[in-house]
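To whoever is on call:

I kicked off a structure prediction for a single chain this morning and the downstream step that reads the tokens threw a length-mismatch warning. I double-checked the sequence; it's 170 residues and nothing unusual in it as far as I can see. Pasting both halves so you can look.
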Amino acid sequence: MATDDGHGGVEGVQGFQIPRLLRAAEVLCADGRVLRGRVFLPATAASHAGAMRAEEWMNDPLPFFPFLPDGEGSPVILNKEQLVVVTVAAATDRDETLDEVNVPLRRVQVECGALRLVGEVLVDMPANHSRLLDLLNRPGAFLNVRDGERHHLVAKARITRVSESPAARA
């Protein structure tokens, strides 16, 4: 029988840890603070081979996650609802399956108050649900705005306006 060991662990139960990969990230908080550091992405994903992508991880329904600020020895816990944008390297969010198929991209400008981000969004949905509005209304708290070598994971709840560029690619 397992019992509390008095140190936050359980006697008789081996520590279970999911392998994690540290990936560089910049976090813009709702209060205006910018945090630079590392996020801990699961080394494996349930739905595909390889590590979990940053977009999948941020759209996980769990409200809190650990973040290791640069220059600090231990992680802090961040609340996803208090974030505006999490920016990661495009390689951290790479989807090799989608790279192999010609998925439509739309060039957009996303505004969160005074913040403006320009990039492309991937429309990996059925043709009858391929409007920008459909993409914004689909489940998931974060929209991935691809900007070259960076992906901006934008909290949908913080988006005030989205416009599609006339030069959008289909």
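Update from on-call: the warning came from a stale cache, not from the record. Cleared it. Sanity check on the structure: The longest strand covers residues 20-29.
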